[in-house]
C-alpha cells in the first residue's frame, strides 16, 4: 500500500484534512501502523472540535483505555470542564474513576459550581448511590469527607437518607461530622436516618457516640418525632441510647401524646414499657387518653385503660375523655371509658355533659350508646333540652331516638323555645312533621310571644308554614312586639310565604308595636316583590304612618331602598311625598341625611321648591346633603340651594361628614347610621322600646342638638352597638373547631 510508505508527518497532515472524526477513525483502524500515527490525531481533533466527547463516552461506558489514549494525545482531563467524576460515580464505574484519579489530581477537577455551599461533589453522588468502592477511591484520593452543597447537605446526609449503612460506616471512619444539620429541616445525618426509618444506619451513627438531645426532626426531639409516624424499632433504638419519654415540647406535649394522637399503637406500647407516664397532661390538660379517644384509636384507648389511665382527668376547658368520644360512633371506646368509671354526667367548662355534646354535634351512634348505658334523656346541661338541640339541628334520627327514650316534647329552654320552635325556625320539615305526629303543640309561644309559625315565616320556610297552617295555626297570633306571621314574612322579604299566608286569610291590615304595617316593613327592607304583591291587593294604606310619623316612602328613603321608592312613586294613588315625621323630616330630607343620591334624584322631580321644608332642627335637605359624605348628593341640591339663596360654600362643618353604613343600626331620631362604635357615644331609651327585644336609639349628634325620644321625661342609658362587630364575626366565621397539632406540639382547639 503506497500510503504506508509515506512519512508520518504527511500521514498526519492527511488525517487532519479529513472532513469528520468518523473518517479519521476509519483511517486509524486500517492497520496497526496507521493506528499508531492517526489515533493521536483523532483524539486531538475530538478535543478541538467536539468538546472532548470521547472523555464523556469513556466515563459513561467505563472505558479507562480511552481516557489513557486521550491523555497520551495531550488531552488534559482536568481541563475538559466536564463532570466526568460525577458521571463515573453516578454509574458506579470504579475502573474509569480510578483511571481519572491516577491521571490527574482530584483538586484539579471542575465541579458543578464555584460556590462552596452550592456545588455537589462526586462523593455526594457516590454516597447517595451507595457506591462504596467509588467513595473509597475518592476518599483515598483526598476527597473531603464532609463537603456541603445547596441546603448544607453532606455525603453523610446522602448516605443516611438512603440507608446505605456500609457507606455511612466508611464516611464515619474517615471522620465525617455528624453534627452538621441541613438548612431545610435542620436535620443531622442521624435525624435523617431515623426519620427515614433506616434503623441499622441510625444504629451505626449512635454507636459512634453523640448527644442524642442535639439531633432534632422538624424542630422536635427525635423520640417525639418518632412517635409521630415511625416504627417501634426506631423508638426502642433511641430509648436504648438515652432518649427519654419524659422530654417533649414547650406545650407540655410528650411522645406518648403524639403517638396516641397519630394512632401509633406499637410506639405507645414501647413508651409505656419504658416508663412513660400514662396520665401526663399537656399544659392544656390533655392526656394521651384524650387524644386517642378523640381520634377514635380504639386499640390505643384499650391499651391506655389497661395501663391504668385516669378517665376523669379534665382539660383546661373541663373536658374529660368521655367528652371527646364524639367521632365515628366510637361505641367500644365509650364502653371502655364507662367500664373504667367515667362519669356520664360530668360537665365541661361550659357545663355540657358528654351526651349534650353528642346531640349538638349530631353524633347519633354516640347518643345511642350513652342512652343505652343510662344517660339522662332529660339532660339540660347545655341550657337546652336535648330534644330541642336535636330538633334545631334537623337531626331526625336523634329526635326519634330521644322520643323513644322518653324525651318530653313540651320541654323548653330558658326563653320558652320548644323543640317545634327550633325545627320550624330552621326549616327542618321532617322534624316538624315528626314532632307534630307526637303531639307537639303548634300554638305554644316562647317568652317573646312567638309561635312556631311566626318563626318559620320570618325565615321563609314555606313547607313548614304550610304544614303548620294545615294543622290550624292561628295566623293572627302576634308576638309581644306585634308581629304576626304575615308581618314577619313581609319584613324579611319571603314572597312565597307571604302569598301562602294571604291565600289562607292572613290579615293584611295588621301593624306591629311601632305602627308599621306589612307594606312599610317590606319597603324598609327593600323587598320589592313583596311590596308589589301587597300593593296589588288594594288593601294597603300607602300613606300609613308609624309611631314616629314615618310612611313607607319615608322609611324606604331612609334606608336607601331606591327600587322600593320607585315602586311606591309609581303606585296609584301616589303617596304623599312631603309627609313629615315626628322630627320634621320629609322623605327628601331623610334621603339627604344618608346620602342616597339616586333617591334624591327621584324625589327632586316631585317638588318645585324642595328646600322649603325644614326639620325640627331648622335644617334643610341641602344642609344634610353637604354632611352625608356623598359629594353626588350635595351636587344634586346645589342648584336648588342657589335659587333659594342658601350659601353653598363649604365650611368647616361640612368636613364633619358621616357616611352611610348599611350594617350599622340607625338613630331613631334622624334616621342616620350614626350609632356605631366608630361614632361618639349614642344613647338608648328602653321605656320607648316597643317590644322586649328592642330599644329607641339616639345618636350623639341628635342628643347634642337637644332631641328627645318619644317622651321628654325618659331616662337614657349608653348604647353599646354590636352591629359592625357581629358583621365582622360573621365574615370571619370558619366553622367548627378542630383538634390538631401546632408547631410546638399538640393542642386541642374547641
From TrEMBL:
Entry annotated with the keyword Iron-sulfur: no
Pfam families, alphabetized: Ank, Ank_2, Ank_4
ANK repeats, residue ranges: 118-150, 151-183, 185-212, 251-283, 284-316, 317-349, 350-382, 382-414, 415-447, 448-480, 481-513
Keyword Repeat: yes
Annotated transmembrane regions: none
PANTHER family xrefs: ANKYRIN REPEAT AND PROTEIN KINASE DOMAIN-CONTAINING PROTEIN (PTHR24198), ANKYRIN REPEAT-CONTAINING PROTEIN-RELATED (PTHR24198:SF165)
Protein name (database record): Uncharacterized protein
Organism: Tolypocladium paradoxum
